[in-house]
Design goal:
Blueprint lengths: L4 H23 L3 H8 L3 H9 L8 H10 L4 H8 L16 H15 L5 H21 L1
Helix pairs in contact: 1-3, 1-5, 2-3, 2-4
């Protein structure tokens, strides 16, 4: 059994809503400004926000929306293509695009050959400390 299109619409609407709220809080951008800067029409962004679309959003538009907000495209695609309901998940997917962007940036820094070994060690140690603190709190 696979997810209904309405579920993908709801998940993507949630993703877009979080992205627009983050843009408003962090950059002072309105929905209209997000639309203008991304090249995606205002009506399309509002349809995405409401989950009111008949066909999946076009990839170039989703890519432009994510690019202007510094969000990983993968986060948007995961929202658009949730796993089948009978597929077990190790952990719930992140829906906060800001968190997704931070995680992607950390992964990029760890994979970047220009990042020094000392910086990589510091990043790993910080992540380990956070993970251990979270497991103790549970």
């Amino acid at each position: 059994m696979s997810e209904t299109p309405a579920t993908a619409q709801t998940a993507f609407a949630r993703f877009v809503r979080h992205a627009v709220e983050a843009a408003r809080e962090e950059r002072g951008w309105s929905v209209a400004e997000v639309a203008a800067r991304s090249g995606v029409s205002r009506s399309t962004v509002f349809r995405w926000l409401s989950g009111d679309w008949q066909h999946h959003p076009e990839l170039p538009k989703v890519r432009a929306f994510c690019a202007i907000l510094d969000l990983p495209l993968g986060a948007a695609l995961r929202a658009l293509t949730p796993p089948p309901a009978d597929t077990p998940q190790a952990s719930p997917p992140l829906t906060d695009p800001t968190v997704e962007a931070h995680i992607a940036a950390i992964r990029d820094r760890l994979a970047d050959s220009r990042t020094s070994a000392a910086d990589k060690q510091h990043i790993r140690a910080t992540l380990q400390t956070l993970a251990l603190a979270a497991s103790r709190a549970s």
